[in-house]
Amino acid sequence: MKKFFKGIGQYFANFGTAVAKGDLWTRLSLVIMGMGYFGRKQIVKGILMTLIEIGFFMFTFQFSLTYLAKLGTLGTVQREEVFDPLTLTKTVNDYDNSLLILLCSIIGILFIVAFILLYISNMKTVYRLQQMKEEGKHINTFREDCRQMINNKFYITLLTLPSLGVIIINVIPILFMVCVAFTNYDAAHMPPSNLFTWVGLKNWGTLFSFNRNSGFGYAFIRILGWTLVWAAFATFTTYIGGILLAKFINNNNTKCKKLWRSLFVVTIAIPQFVTLLLVSKMFGTYGIVNGFCSRIGLTSFLKDIGLLSGSLNYIPFLSKPGWAHVMVILINIWIGVPYQMLIATGILMNIPNDQLESARIDGATNFQIFWKITMPYMLFVTGPSLITSFIGNINNFNVIFLLTGDYVTTNPMYAMANASETDLLITWLFKITTNSTTKQYYMASVIGIVVFVICAGLTLVTFSRMTKGDREEVYQ
Amino acid sequence: MKVKKTIKQIIRHLVLAALALFWLIPIIWLFVTALGAEKGINTNHFFPEKWSLDNFAQLFFRPDTVANFPAWFKNSFIIGCACCVISSVFVLMVAYAFSCMRFKGRKALMNFSIIIGMFPGVLSMLAIYFVMKLLGLNDSLIGLIVVYSAGSGLGYLICKGFFDTIPVSLREAAKIEGASELTTFVRIVIPLSKPMIVYTVINSFMAPWMDFVMARIMINSKEPANWTVSIGLYNILQRTLIGDYFAVFCAGGLIVAVPLSILFVIMQKFYVEGITGGAVKG
């Protein structure tokens, strides 16, 4: 942390030196960014820099400033349509669109930040050029600069496009949604016909309110609990199952290993949304499994021992709490084990054979070998990916959404919050934004931020342990 | 002793067979329903009473107002291929930059990318939709391609793990011979990482091919010809349509699996190598 602040201090100090000690050309670049390059005969670079500067100011003053000015209120003029009976046309007033204001402001701010960074680094570069000139060193021509882009500075070439993509697809949307968590953006405040505005921390209060009129606090605690339980079960069952299956297939006594493996891999090849929808129909109220169960008498047997209430003549595999929770985890085993098996197979093959041999010579039983050698090795190799898959399961939208799509909650507290018992946080926020008539985007954002905090916390704890004593270059 | 061993062997294989059967039941059901003459969900028999190829014929040659499979398949295939190329290139580029080059801010960027990746995708999808609308790319194939591939640079971790295992001496030798970083990347590192490239390619093809949520948010068009396979197939399982289209859904599901199966079969060997190659590093 200290290093971090020191770095920032250094950053601005360098800028200060550049301004203080710069000659005429360097100081001129404070106003026109290309001047420093012109002075050192780097004409093309100078023109490019100046063009960037002009472009930035045109963009900011023509485009972003109009939006940035309204960022504080997110717009005040509501859309109004006036119907003119004489010309039979509708005229729309010059209304404010809160959504556009927020989005364009974020983009504008990003541009400004980027420009400031560029501006500072430009000053430093120009100052370095000045120093190089004074020391009589060779100053690169434009061609040499370009050559550098595939050499020492190849990383800039490599990272530019992907970073741009990440900014458009990840950074801007994330900033936008974080902002939405502090507004009242919902169906009643839907641009363009209506405005939404800032409400501060009110939505966070709603999430933790436990009174009878709002189901949010009630649903949030329960769904959070179920999400964690689900993630733990889903991760460990498939992990252990995958390793056991891989060991079973890889055993020397098994014939046709490839064939067995392929049989399981077939289930991966069919896209999840197909298999999940299919399985959910199999276990549906009038699905094939229920038909089978009632024919062999399982349904009535379950009724007799009291696991099933008398009024039902089917087994509510995916439509009653409890049943659905267990079924979802079981079906997830079906989905996840083949994949884990594939990964585990590769790793098991890499276990140094001499270790297993010597253990066997020393008289270890198979079970001991598995727990004392195989498992620690597996954990060492796949430990990080366990955390990743735990987080993946917290965010496992597909399994829950596609399996329990027909699930209707009977609990009014859940219903009030647009949730149901089997929802994970992630499917809950999706339902809030799409399935309901209220479309409380702000609540969805609040939940999203909670999920983010959970995941980020988990990652930070584990990654900081993992990267302790930087192992990155061990194998290079 | 020998008899006991044989019995053990038989039991082992029986258990495996039982497990395999259990895993394959839904797949078999998918298969036989697709080949059945009945259109709706068959609740009484596992196997259909009459067999026919009519579902496939309907799928391919008689697109109607609800199910337009040829168009869906075409859309998905275009998206899949385009993303496959763009994402793979992005991932390899980012992985090389982070693994093989040392520059200021590298660690910070890597940490930043991990944190960004933590944010729930479903939530940012909504905002992505707004961004795409601003760019005028919603409801279009290009928009979906951008959405699927632009952020793919974040998935560099496994690939970087693999690049980390390539001996640094190789690259140094190349540099002493006068190769630029670009040449090292294209001529040395890429040829050495075939398993990893295969893994990346499969993954980047599969992600859009199997995705459902993003497509559903991005494409609002009511015209089935603009849909992708996943939205289309999801749609025909609606309560009002399922009675007439369930078998068609099964047939469609099978067809969707074909490109993936081919990819898997060709690349299975590399696939296992690829995953572990990167994972050993951790």
UniProtKB/TrEMBL annotation, chain A:
Domain ABC transmembrane type-1 per the UniProt entry, residue ranges: 224-462
GO terms for cellular component: maltose transport complex
Residues passing through the membrane, by range: 43-65, 99-120, 154-183, 223-246, 258-279, 323-348, 369-391, 441-463
Keywords: Cell membrane, Membrane, Sugar transport, Transmembrane, Transmembrane helix, Transport
GO terms classed as biological process: maltodextrin transmembrane transport
Keyword Flavoprotein: no
GO molecular function: ABC-type maltose transporter activity
Location(s), subcellular: Cell membrane
Pfam family, one: BPD_transp_1
Function of the protein: Part of the ABC transporter complex MalEFGK involved in maltose/maltodextrin import. Probably responsible for the translocation of the substrate across the membrane.
Protein's UniProt name: Maltose/maltodextrin transport system permease protein
Organism: Agathobacter ruminis
Automatic annotation (TrEMBL), chain B:
Compartments it resides in: Cell membrane
A Pfam family the protein falls into: BPD_transp_1
UniProt cross-references to SUPFAM superfamilies, sorted A to Z: MetI-like
CDD domains: TM_PBP2
Signal peptide as annotated in the record: none
Any one GO biological process: maltodextrin transmembrane transport
Species for this entry: Agathobacter ruminis
Membrane spanning stretches: 77-98, 110-130, 142-163, 245-266
InterPro entries per the UniProt record, alphabetical: BP-dep_ABC_trans_perm, MetI-like, MetI-like_sf
Annotated protein name in UniProt: Sugar ABC transporter permease
Family: Belongs to the binding-protein-dependent transport system permease family. MalFG subfamily.
Entry keyword set: Cell membrane, Membrane, Sugar transport, Transmembrane, Transmembrane helix, Transport
Residue span(s) of domain ABC transmembrane type-1: 73-267
A single cellular component GO annotation: plasma membrane
Membrane topology: Multi-pass membrane protein
GO MF, one example: ABC-type maltose transporter activity
